[in-house]
Amino acid sequence: MTGKNRQNYNKNYVAYVHSFDPPTEHFKNCFRAFMVGGLICCIGQFLRYILEFAFGLQGDELAGTVSVILIFLGTLLTGLGVYDRIGKNAGAGSIVPITGFANSVASPAIEFKTEGMVYGMAAKMFIVAGPIIVFGVLAGTVVGIIYLFL
Protein backbone atom coordinates (compact mmCIF):
# COMPACT_ATOMS: atom_id res chain seq x y z
CA MET A 1 0.00 0.00 0.00
CA THR A 2 1.43 3.39 -0.93
CA GLY A 3 1.69 6.34 1.44
CA LYS A 4 -1.27 8.20 -0.12
CA ASN A 5 -3.54 5.13 0.01
CA ARG A 6 -2.52 4.41 3.60
CA GLN A 7 -3.33 8.00 4.60
CA ASN A 8 -6.79 7.80 3.00
CA TYR A 9 -7.36 4.39 4.61
CA ASN A 10 -6.44 5.81 8.04
CA LYS A 11 -8.76 8.79 7.57
CA ASN A 12 -11.63 6.50 6.53
CA TYR A 13 -11.01 4.22 9.50
CA VAL A 14 -10.90 7.12 11.96
CA ALA A 15 -14.12 8.52 10.50
CA TYR A 16 -15.73 5.08 10.79
CA VAL A 17 -14.69 4.69 14.43
CA HIS A 18 -15.87 8.20 15.33
CA SER A 19 -19.27 7.48 13.78
CA PHE A 20 -19.94 5.11 16.71
CA ASP A 21 -18.79 7.54 19.44
CA PRO A 22 -21.44 9.65 21.11
CA PRO A 23 -20.65 13.36 21.03
CA THR A 24 -18.84 14.60 24.12
CA GLU A 25 -20.66 17.19 26.17
CA HIS A 26 -17.68 19.15 27.47
CA PHE A 27 -19.56 21.92 29.27
CA LYS A 28 -21.89 19.48 31.00
CA ASN A 29 -18.98 17.26 32.10
CA CYS A 30 -16.97 20.22 33.40
CA PHE A 31 -19.99 21.56 35.28
CA ARG A 32 -20.64 18.19 36.95
CA ALA A 33 -16.97 17.81 37.88
CA PHE A 34 -16.91 21.32 39.33
CA MET A 35 -20.10 20.78 41.34
CA VAL A 36 -19.15 17.38 42.76
CA GLY A 37 -15.56 18.38 43.51
CA GLY A 38 -16.83 21.54 45.16
CA LEU A 39 -19.39 19.58 47.17
CA ILE A 40 -16.68 17.23 48.47
CA CYS A 41 -14.57 20.24 49.46
CA CYS A 42 -17.59 21.87 51.13
CA ILE A 43 -18.19 18.68 53.13
CA GLY A 44 -14.57 18.81 54.26
CA GLN A 45 -14.91 22.46 55.26
CA PHE A 46 -18.16 21.71 57.11
CA LEU A 47 -16.41 18.94 59.03
CA ARG A 48 -13.60 21.35 59.84
CA TYR A 49 -16.04 23.92 61.28
CA ILE A 50 -17.88 21.27 63.30
CA LEU A 51 -14.67 19.85 64.76
CA GLU A 52 -13.29 23.29 65.47
CA PHE A 53 -16.31 24.78 67.20
CA ALA A 54 -17.91 21.70 68.77
CA PHE A 55 -14.78 19.83 69.87
CA GLY A 56 -12.25 22.66 70.14
CA LEU A 57 -9.69 21.10 67.81
CA GLN A 58 -7.08 23.42 66.31
CA GLY A 59 -4.06 23.34 64.02
CA ASP A 60 -2.59 19.98 63.10
CA GLU A 61 -5.12 18.02 65.18
CA LEU A 62 -7.96 19.65 63.28
CA ALA A 63 -6.39 19.11 59.85
CA GLY A 64 -5.46 15.51 60.64
CA THR A 65 -8.91 14.65 61.98
CA VAL A 66 -10.68 16.10 58.93
CA SER A 67 -8.30 14.19 56.64
CA VAL A 68 -8.93 10.91 58.46
CA ILE A 69 -12.70 11.40 58.32
CA LEU A 70 -12.61 12.17 54.58
CA ILE A 71 -10.37 9.15 53.91
CA PHE A 72 -12.76 6.98 55.91
CA LEU A 73 -15.78 8.31 54.04
CA GLY A 74 -14.09 7.82 50.65
CA THR A 75 -13.13 4.25 51.55
CA LEU A 76 -16.58 3.47 52.97
CA LEU A 77 -18.35 4.81 49.90
CA THR A 78 -15.98 2.81 47.69
CA GLY A 79 -16.74 -0.36 49.63
CA LEU A 80 -20.47 0.24 49.32
CA GLY A 81 -20.15 0.88 45.57
CA VAL A 82 -21.42 4.44 45.86
CA TYR A 83 -18.14 6.15 44.95
CA ASP A 84 -18.04 4.37 41.58
CA ARG A 85 -21.49 5.73 40.74
CA ILE A 86 -20.40 9.20 41.82
CA GLY A 87 -17.33 8.86 39.59
CA LYS A 88 -19.40 7.81 36.58
CA ASN A 89 -21.61 10.88 36.91
CA ALA A 90 -19.06 13.41 38.16
CA GLY A 91 -15.97 12.39 36.22
CA ALA A 92 -12.88 14.24 37.38
CA GLY A 93 -14.78 15.94 40.19
CA SER A 94 -14.64 12.73 42.19
CA ILE A 95 -10.84 12.70 42.11
CA VAL A 96 -10.55 15.42 44.75
CA PRO A 97 -7.17 14.48 46.22
CA ILE A 98 -8.00 12.96 49.58
CA THR A 99 -11.18 11.04 48.74
CA GLY A 100 -9.94 10.12 45.27
CA PHE A 101 -6.73 8.76 46.75
CA ALA A 102 -8.70 6.69 49.27
CA ASN A 103 -10.77 5.35 46.38
CA SER A 104 -7.67 4.50 44.34
CA VAL A 105 -6.30 2.41 47.22
CA ALA A 106 -9.57 0.74 48.25
CA SER A 107 -10.84 -0.18 44.77
CA PRO A 108 -8.01 -2.59 43.79
CA ALA A 109 -8.02 -4.09 47.28
CA ILE A 110 -11.73 -4.88 46.96
CA GLU A 111 -11.36 -6.08 43.37
CA PHE A 112 -8.55 -8.53 44.14
CA LYS A 113 -9.75 -9.82 47.54
CA THR A 114 -10.68 -13.17 45.96
CA GLU A 115 -6.96 -13.81 45.35
CA GLY A 116 -6.31 -13.81 49.10
CA MET A 117 -5.13 -11.38 51.73
CA VAL A 118 -1.44 -11.28 50.76
CA TYR A 119 -1.35 -11.87 47.00
CA GLY A 120 -4.68 -10.18 46.38
CA MET A 121 -5.52 -7.32 48.69
CA ALA A 122 -2.06 -6.46 50.05
CA ALA A 123 -0.18 -6.82 46.76
CA LYS A 124 -2.72 -5.08 44.53
CA MET A 125 -3.82 -2.36 46.96
CA PHE A 126 -1.22 0.13 45.74
CA ILE A 127 -1.31 -0.78 42.05
CA VAL A 128 -2.86 2.61 41.19
CA ALA A 129 -1.69 4.74 44.12
CA GLY A 130 1.78 3.19 44.44
CA PRO A 131 3.52 5.32 41.80
CA ILE A 132 2.02 8.44 43.37
CA ILE A 133 3.35 7.47 46.79
CA VAL A 134 6.80 6.66 45.41
CA PHE A 135 6.97 9.95 43.50
CA GLY A 136 5.81 11.89 46.56
CA VAL A 137 8.43 10.29 48.80
CA LEU A 138 11.23 10.79 46.28
CA ALA A 139 10.22 14.37 45.49
CA GLY A 140 9.97 15.16 49.20
CA THR A 141 13.43 13.68 49.77
CA VAL A 142 14.97 15.68 46.93
CA VAL A 143 13.33 18.90 48.09
CA GLY A 144 14.44 18.20 51.67
CA ILE A 145 18.05 17.65 50.59
CA ILE A 146 17.98 20.86 48.52
CA TYR A 147 16.48 22.73 51.46
CA LEU A 148 19.18 21.29 53.76
CA PHE A 149 21.97 22.71 51.62
CA LEU A 150 20.36 26.12 51.08
Write the layout of secondary structure elements.
Elements: H1 3-18, H2 26-55, H3 59-80, H4 82-90, H5 97-111, H6 117-124, H7 130-149
Summed up, what is this model?
The chain is mainly α and 150 residues long.
Question: Explain this structure to me?
Answer:
With 150 residues, the protein is mostly helical. The chain has one domain (26-149). 80% of the residues lie in helices and 0% in strands. The chain contains 7 helices and no strands. It has helices at residues 3-18, 26-55, 59-80, 82-90, 97-111, 117-124, 130-149. The radius of gyration is 22 Å and the shape is extended. The N and C termini lie far apart (61 Å). The mean pLDDT is 87.
Number of domains: 1
The quaternary state of the protein chains shown equals: single chain
Number of helices: 7
Poorly predicted runs of 5 or more residues: none
Instruction: Report the radius of gyration as a whole number of Å.
Output: 22 Å
Q: What's the average pLDDT?
A: 87
Could you tell me the number of beta strands?
0
Percent range of helical residues: over 70%
Largest sheet: none
Spatial gap, N to C terminus: 61 Å
Give helix and strand order, one letter per element, not per position: HHHHHHH
**What structural class do the secondary elements suggest?**
mainly alpha
Strand percentage lies at: under 5%
Shape: extended
